[in-house]
Amino acid sequence: MKKPNGWLDFYPRPQLKRDSFFSLNGEWEFNIGEAGRIPAEFQSTINVPFVPQSELSDCSVEVKIEDTLFYKKSFTLPRGFVKDRVILNFGAVNNCCNVFLNGQKVGENIGGYNRFSFDVTNFLQENNTLIVEATNKLDGILPYGKQRKKRGGMWYTPVSGIWQSVWLESVPSVYIKYIDITTKGNEVTFLIDGVNDGLVYIMPNEEPIARFVDGRAIVKISDPKYWTPETPHIYNVKIVCEKDEVQTYFALRELEIKNIDGYPRLLLNGKPYFFNGLLDQGYFADGIFTPSTPEEYKNDILFAKRSGFNMLRKHIKIEPDVFYYYCDTLGMAVFQDMVNNSDYSFIRDTALPTIALKRLNDTFLHKNKKSRQAFIEGMLSTVGDLKNFPSVCEWTIFNEGWGQFCSSKMYGLLKVYDSTRFIDSASGWFKAKDTDFESEHVYFKDIKLKAKKRPLFLSEFGGYSLMVDTPYSPQKEYGYRSFKDKESYTEAVVNLYKTQVLPLIEKGLCAAVYTQLTDVEDEINGLITYDRTVEKIDSKILSNLFKGIN
Question: Which of 144, 203, 360, 481 is the most exposed place for a label (fewest CB within 10 A)?
Fold first, then answer.
């Protein structure tokens, strides 16, 4: 029985929402072909936005990572839909694509995790044919995350093509293209790209609270309500200019580092706050990169909340906007990883650092100019796409040396671009001179850490494994310490927190990330199974364990 496609009519952009929306998700024609040559015939179909390697794609073609994919969608716009301009939007395509409309190329995109769009007004006809040519070379130049041609262990199935929503919107000739929102205390600054003048409404007020001039408006909120995971208050906003109107939102949330009682602490809205997190890979058994419905993101977040966690470390993957929207509105802090590229060495990047070698000059690591530039472009694109989401409280630049280079320089570059969040320059090891944390990964020994001059962050630990029989259980198990039954597994997880992690809070520990939220392919060290059907540990036991930490 096929699962319903929960993305068919789902509006994908909650922070720049307008009434004009025409979804192109659903069934497309599909074929493998030769790069640069659109096939004369399409022999299969695919369910967008699911990658062809996934069960949810309903694609009968076996796709290899080096294949060139072609998608074809025919559509006719509703009468009255077109205003002055029509914009074609893509959430993400992995990782390079060319886009054609009615036989003409409208644009291209490089990068598998960023949103992009094209003005297609001049290419439209009454009946339209859209073609997308997509490739994923997985050559290490572009960011690729956890994908691996030979998947296994902590490396996962590689994916190709469209994996987020595709849709059209119609806009006036002068329209709101982007809104940059920053907050400090009770003050909010809006920078609007595309228009110069207009009005700002804080909903549900019927009177505008401010007018923006030259694309800028500053609003002071009286009787402010501040955002925390426990009290996730957001302010809904309407921005109106002469011919365009969009809805967006913001939250008042401030992050600082200060010495409290002799230790450097993370502060949320002026108060010390312990970020109690789970590693979240963002993979799904039937959709790989994309869940069957956006509600699955919501369910993951709610499981973490009722288990007493207040943070998810989004591990080396960028999600669709709806994931961050749910974190904003439900109350879940996000520590966001950048997506790695370049080569990986088991000896250099995992084995030796796990034993002892945690310092290494990264100035001359990963020297390829193209891969360095691709990483920088991906990092800045990630921040541009996600910086308006208040739940995002931290950026992780490099993880365990994967693709790491000039980490202090990258810290400086990122801090200039976004000075409002914490930054972990090198999670786990290969310490950076410039970073906001003492960031440690501890898996195969007791957790014995001491606070130093920077906030102490246990950025990965645990990884305890329990095999649960489901249709997606792996034949080859991967984890860091295995258990045979739920009772011994639960006892071990609880004991780890009670005896090693929670006592460190009063000694300077500021944040901790347990590995991990869900199983992923061979990895069976999740608190939930890969298909989300079985919770391996009672959430009440965990929530009781964490009572009173904030």
Answer: 203
C-alpha gyration radius of the chain: 23
Instruction: Flag the least confident range among 207-216, 256-265, 492-501, 530-539.
Output: 207-216
Predicted confidence (pLDDT) per residue in 462-489, tens digit? 999 999 999 998 888 888 899 999 999 9
Three-class DSSP category at 84: coil
What CATH number is given for 22-171 in this structure? 2.60.120.260
Q: Is 275 helix (H, G, I), strand (E, B) or coil?
A: strand
The class level of CATH for 178-250 reads: mainly beta
DSSP string of 126-195? SSEEEEEEEE----SSS--TTB-SS-BTTBB----EE-S-EEEEEE-SS---EEEEEEETTEEEEEEES-
State yes or no: pLDDT of 40 exceeds 60.
Answer: yes
Q: What's the CATH architecture for 255-545? A: Alpha-Beta Barrel (3.20)
Contacts of residue 306, Cβ cutoff 8 Å, sequence gap at least 6: 539, 543
Residue ranges covered by each domain of the chain:
22-171, 178-250, 255-545
Give this prediction's pTM.
0.96
Residues 47, 50, 52, 53, CA torsion sign: negative
Beta carbons of 398 and 365 less than 8 angstroms apart: no
Residue with tokens 């949810």: 56
Tens of pLDDT, residues 525-534: 999 999 999 9
Backbone angles phi, psi at 130, to 5 degrees: -105, 130
Cβ–Cβ under 8 Å, residues 427 and 467? no
Q: Quote the pLDDT of residue 1.
A: 56
Q: Which two tokens stand for residue 271?
A: 């108060």
For 538-544, the CB contacts below 8 A with 24+ separation are 538/490, 539/303, 539/306, 539/307, 539/308, 541/490, 541/494, 542/307, 542/308, 542/309, 542/493, 542/494, 543/306, 543/307, 543/308, 544/308
What six digits make up the tokens of 441? 């990964």
Task: Give the pLDDT mean for 182-190.
Answer: 95
Q: Which one has a higher pLDDT value, 247 or 5? A: 247
